[in-house]
UniProtKB/TrEMBL annotation:
It comes from the Bacteria. Keywords: Endonuclease, Hydrolase, Nuclease. This is Endonuclease, Uma2 family (Restriction endonuclease fold). CDD domains: DUF820-like. Residues 26-182 form the Putative restriction endonuclease domain. InterPro entries: Nuclease_put_TT1808, Restrct_endonuc-II-like, Uma2. It comes from Actinoplanes philippinensis.
Length: 191
């Protein structure tokens, strides 16, 4: 009689490939189930920090608001990614996708994304404010929202001539005309 092994070896990041910056989206898609969530930045895997309860609540309430208020040609989603390129991917906090959904995989192509939303947390400030907007912009994502916490404030950007321009911002009610008529009371997404 042979003994069954207990557990299994945990996933570990290949540090040589990390230094070479040669990871691709295919590598991320082939990660085992026990691997942490990652984003790709120029072929380097970046661990996505676990969100706080306040961060999760904001994202979940925004998902619910989209679900209840967005027209039928859109679908709200969380915990999915955007394939920016073969060497770059993002894991936004909330997405508003265009229907019909052409795949049911983890990653969506930029042309399927109407709004990408990042909720800024202490561990994601630099990426959410400085690194991700140019990536979404270069990928042609039409609308990008950045949500700041303490106090809660939304900054909404529209892609105009290849560059993001501030379309609106508010700490009380976000009012926008695109991608649909939006009147989002900030209290609706406040934990």
């Amino acid at each position: 009689m042979t003994a069954e092994p207990i557990g299994h070896a945990e996933w570990a990041l290949d540090l040589t490939r990390q230094r070479l910056a040669n990871f691709t989206l295919e590598d991320v898609l082939n990660l085992p189930d026990d691997a942490p969530r990652v984003e790709l930045r120029d072929g380097v895997m970046i661990l996505v920090p676990s969100p706080t309860i306040g961060h999760q609540t904001i994202g979940n309430l925004l998902w619910l608001w989209f679900r209840q208020n967005a027209p039928g040609q859109f679908l709200a989603a969380t915990a999915v990614g955007v394939a920016i390129s073969a060497r770059d991917s993002f894991e936004p906090d909330v997405l508003l996708l265009r229907q019909p959904i052409v795949n049911s995989h983890h990653y969506f192509l930029p042309d399927q994304v109407e709004i990408a939303v990042e909720i800024v947390s202490p561990g994601t400030k630099r990426r959410d404010r400085m690194e991700k907007p140019p990536g979404y912009e270069a990928a042609g994502i039409q609308h990008f929202w950045r949500i700041e916490q303490d106090p809660l404030h939304i900054f909404a950007y529209d892609l105009v001539d290849g560059r993001y321009e501030l379309a609106g911002d508010s700490g009380t009610e976000l009012v926008l005309s695109a991608p649909f008529e939006i009147r989002l009371p900030i209290s609706d997404i406040t934990p």
